[in-house]
Give the backbone structure.
Amino acid sequence: MIKESVPSVPVEEAEFSVLDVETTGLSARNNHIIEIGIVKVKNLKITNKFHSLVNPGCKIPYFITQFTGITDEDIIDAPFFSELTDKIENVIGDSVISAHNLSFDNSFLKYEFFRTGREPLSNHKICTLKLARRLYPSLKSKSLSSVTQYLRLKNSNAHRALADAEVAARALIKMIKKLKKDEGIETLDELSAYQNRVTAKGRSKIKKSLNNDVSSLPNAPGIYYFLNKKNEIIYVGKAKLLGERIKTYFSPTASKKAKKIVRQASKLKTEITNSELTALLTEAETIKLINPKHNTQLKKYGNKYFIRVNKTHCYPKLEISNHFDFDGNDYFGLFISRKRADKVMEMIDKTFAIRECTDKEFSKKKKCFLADIERCTAPCIKTKDLDYSDELGKVYEFLNGKNQTALDRLLNKMKDYSSKQKYEKAAEVKELVDLILAQTHKSSLLSEPVNSANVLFEISESFSKDYLLLISGKPFIKTYIHSKDGLFEEAIDDYFSGTHNLQIVPTDEDLEKMKISLNWLIKNRNKVRIFYLKNYRSREELYSAISRFSKFNESPDVSFYDINHLVNGDVLVEKYSAK
């Protein structure tokens, strides 16, 4: 196999295996491959293809099915990855492994090989995403779809492994031809050097060898603090991988701001957290408390938006609100922007027959245009409208993440328009279907309104777990640096004893935590288990259910580093466990 020492093989003679995988989620550690496609390239031409569905040994999440079209029925008779390892290894052989965003596809390939007791492939690798970043700097997005569109390559079946692998292979061929012509790149080692080349712009005085020393920093989620000679914190940051993030501050291509921070700092402190989420929460709250001189963002509470169901009216309407209260209404969200809330409202208005008029207009008891086009059940002209209650129930299902009713309704409407040759109308509905599918895994996590949600989230991302409790809009985090010990357990005990005070409206800090938490949890739902407190009779019963598969976490590690030692190539000087 071709190892890390790259041979001087002419790029035309080099053989590439361009691959793509579809998976059950985003984490290679916790998820599995459900489809793999490999396209062989030699002499800058496609020479062979390999494709297989893969049985992951678990159910495919609904949003993955919506995204890829791959269902549980499709993979039920498919081979397990262990049955494919020999074939995959033979197909790839000694070729150069390539993919668009190779680190993602290769991480899944590596973990699947590990699980079957095999060593991962050590072939040389070329990433078309890295090449695209250098070749097309003016291209706003370097995603596969953006790059292939720019190169005028068609992908007939996006988000399926073989189709994506083939279009990535065609993109690789075009990139290599351009590099041969414009950069004079003739060999595989030159191509590899171009992929990994660091630009000279903004070069730092810090030694290049420093990257090796910084690599000894913990590669785990957490918080890092830069402190000056007076032991004052001048910058707070968070990282999914502390080691990787901190490397960037000492890189030759570090930003002007990063270089300025390093120059003014004399000490670096790191604190490991159990997940990226608690790193995000700690960063946001610490910045507001300390106000470090070099932090410019997160110093103020951001905007917050909910979709409020006005239950004080006999026929409730929906509206967007940036206010949360225990006022008898139901609140859904929390949305990170008005634009995101507007999108969800647009989906609801165009899919469900809920009134959009003001209470004043409703009181006139006159049928409106929306009723004429069947966008409202017209409760304003009826003595009793049972259809409206049914329609509102479907809206609640939609806001709780159940999209099938909405999709079925829209697909039927689209077919009806098409059969009547109203193609423009059908196209409008198709856009709405695409919008719902795109938002499927972004809009909802809870199966009830925020104001009445009493739920515990278990987050599995690192070696330990994080636990986030949400009680009627107020968050509590187990083992959190900015919380008093015992508040997490106390909140659970208050819930089960019925002594929780529902009149205390969550503070701005609570709502900020809720916004950060819910949006992170939605994006990383494959790492989350959800426990609704209403399903348990006591804290003991709840903890028993959790502990069947996991255990509560310990305190994170804190480390201190001397900046001068880091700059000069030394490493850790002091480390202790947080008490």
